[in-house]
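Read as chain and fold; for instance:
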Amino acid sequence: MIFATFIGVDKHDKCVTFAAFLLSHEIIGDDTWAFNNLKKSMERNAVVIVTDQCPAMKVNIRNAFSAENGLHSIKHRLYMSYIMQKFPIKLGNHLCKETDFMEKMKAYIWSSVLEIDEFEIGWK
């Protein structure tokens, strides 16, 4: 079974586990009950949910936390570590492993004070 947690940051900037659940499969609708119970207990939608690139999760989040339920719509984002693992697959091993491209890219990706213009210049 798949163990999933809802971890967030409280108003004191401390990490807090809000909920946890077990999934028997990663299929559309399998985690709907967990999302519905989370919304019910919080009495609102979460602001952001960060996940891996599971297609079922993307659909479930969009359905469960949409603006149609009378609450604010949620933002769904992917884990940065997951994105970084995908770079060699998407861009090719030569570019990522045999050049200094990844080291240069990491400097721009992991910078917390980088402006959009600076990123664009670095990307070029």
Summary: The helical segments are 32-42, 55-64, 80-91, 93-97, 101-109, 116-123. Residues 2-78 form one domain. The longest strand covers residues 15-23. The radius of gyration is 18 Å.
